[in-house]
Amino acid sequence: MDQSTPDVFVLPPGEAPPSLVDWLASRRDGAVLVSVERLDDGQFVLQALPDVDPTLVARIRRILAQHADVLRRLT
Q1: Distance (Å, rounded) from C-alpha 48 to C-alpha 27?
Q2: What is the Cα–Cα distance from 27 to 5, expressed in whole angstroms?
Q3: Which of 46, 48, 54, 57 is nearest to 17 (CA)?
Q4: pLDDT number for residue 4
Q5: How many helices (H) and strands (E) does the chain have?
Q6: pLDDT recorded at residue 3
């Protein structure tokens, strides 16, 4: 996984909370898109987005990169 971008957070295996490890292990698919939100009380809410194909993000990024110049001129 690319660790050089500010949009990627890599959690070393030894630092992952057991509840997170168990939750991810219970997922049938190997990859899942997740939304992360921090509540006012400090709790973190991780919500799986099962209806979104994880490869969709990569495809969208690739398409946006291909058409970045045109998209810039539209704004």
Answers
A1: 9
A2: 26
A3: 46
A4: 53
A5: 3, 2
A6: 55
> CA distances (Å), 51 to each of 2, 8, 57, 70, in order?
25, 22, 13, 30
What DSSP letter does each residue of 2-67 carry, written as one string? Answer: --SSTT-----GGGS-HHHHHHHHT-SSS---EEEEE-TTS-EEEEE-TTS-HHHHHHHHHHHHHT
**How confident is the model at residue 37, as a pLDDT?**
95
- For residue 24, the one-letter residue type is L
**Residues 4-62: pLDDT tens digits?**
567 778 889 899 999 998 988 888 777 788 899 999 999 999 998 888 888 888 888 88
